[in-house]
């Protein structure tokens, strides 16, 4: 059985919007350019044709990836179930051994933006924090070594 790959409704909407943008706007525009360029004769030295075909392949790869992701993910409403433990969608304040606090929100891997405090469900820190309660200390194995994090606060929006 494959583990679920959670995503928020907003994250799923962002995937769908990107897919629709690629397929209804960008791809048709590139197809038009490639068709026009193909009509200009020798394709071997036709920059518009060559670049257009490369761009078209890139769009098709990205659209294929997005289509597969949309089929693979499961929309999960943050905060369902226990609200006193870290689950999908939790906003958690954690402190490391030096008492430096970080505010993190656990989101789907496709929505993660570490710079904005949004970490993916499958990241090492999120995996370590799953099920933790306020006051629990969790050890995370990072490339630079182990690091301890204490859960200070848990909230669901």
Polypeptide structure, described:
The protein has 157 residues and is of the alpha/beta class. The chain folds into two domains: 71 residues, Helix Hairpins (Orthogonal Bundle); 67 residues, Roll (Chitinase A, domain 3), CATH 3.10.50. The chain has three helices and seven strands. The strands form two sheets. The protein has a five-stranded mixed sheet with strand order 5-4-3-7-6. The protein has a two-stranded parallel sheet with strand order 1-2. A hairpin with a 2-residue loop joins strand 6 and strand 7. The longest helix has 30 residues. The protein starts with a strand and ends with a strand. The mean pLDDT is 90.
Topology record:
Layout: E1 5-7, H1 9-38, H2 47-72, E2 73-75, E3 90-96, E4 101-107, E5 118-120, H3 124-129, E6 137-142, E7 145-156
Parallel strand pairs: 1-2, 4-5
Antiparallel strand pairs: 3-4, 3-7, 6-7
Helix pairs in contact: 1-2
CATH architecture of the largest domain: Orthogonal Bundle
Please give the number of β-strands.
7
Q: Distance between termini? A: 30 Å
Can you tell me the CATH topology of the largest domain? Helix Hairpins
Q: What does this entry show, briefly?
A:
The protein has 157 residues and is α/β, with parallel strands linked by helices. The protein is 39% helix and 26% strand. The strands form two sheets. Strands 5-4-3-7-6 form a five-stranded mixed beta sheet.
Write a concise keyword list for the protein shown above.
157 residues; Helix Hairpins; Chitinase A, domain 3; two-stranded parallel ribbon; 3 helices
